[in-house]
Amino acid sequence: MVLLSTLLDEKQFKSFAAIAWNIWKQRCRSVYDGKTFHTVSVIHAAGGMIDTLSKAEMLHSGQLPARHQPFTDSVPVLDFYCHIDGSWVAQGDGGSGWAYVLFNKDGSLIEYGCGTGNAFLPIHSEIQALKAAFMAVKARGINSCSFLMDCKQLQKVMTGITTVDSIDWQCFHDILDLKCLFVGQGYSCNFIRRAMNSLADGIAKYARMKGITVVGFTFPLFASL
């Protein structure tokens, strides 16, 4: 690896390292878990890892992002709005992560947060993201906020379209606690398309892959970690 680092440019070396890491990880799974894997899928997974890390590191530490375009035309938002998302893979493949990104109504960044979790299911990581976002908003004394999510199942439960018992039993107590927190609050939960939630999605994946927990006010504060 040391010799290769002198022969390849930075982009080529990162690609090689990501592919080698995924092949080694899958080989361990085949030895200890008896699971098979295809080389093409390993290379594809490595490409996704490189893309996620590259997007997260495009800005220098401490740099403010461009003003976010609020979705007031397609999604009615309150005085503040907060994107939330979870990132989950099967146990043994990397665990889970969550993220929220809070803006005021004109699209200026207020705060973001991300972390790792022990989610049982994809919906569980979404619940963890929404709870972290709720706690951050309450800590700031914000009483009017729209939470934007691309998980329709969670949005339907939070807005009462479907009942709490529609959630998998492993997450039942977590979603019930979350519903109780939202009672009597001036908050809304809105569904948005995945394409409109790319920032929170990227940060959640980055947190899961790097195993970090961060709260920041410029983006991405964690690029230098």
TrEMBL record:
- Per the database record, which ranges form the RNase H type-1 domain? 84-207
Query: Which top-rank group of organisms is this from?
Result: Eukaryota
* Pfam families with a match to the protein in the record: RVT_3
Q: Where does the signal peptide begin and end?
A: none
GO molecular function per UniProt: nucleic acid binding; RNA-DNA hybrid ribonuclease activity
PANTHER family cross-referenced by the UniProt entry: POLYNUCLEOTIDYL TRANSFERASE, RIBONUCLEASE H-LIKE SUPERFAMILY PROTEIN, POLYNUCLEOTIDYL TRANSFERASE, RIBONUCLEASE H-LIKE SUPERFAMILY PROTEIN-RELATED
Name this polypeptide is given: RNase H type-1 domain-containing protein
Q: What is the lineage of its organism?
A: Eukaryota, Viridiplantae, Streptophyta, Embryophyta, Tracheophyta
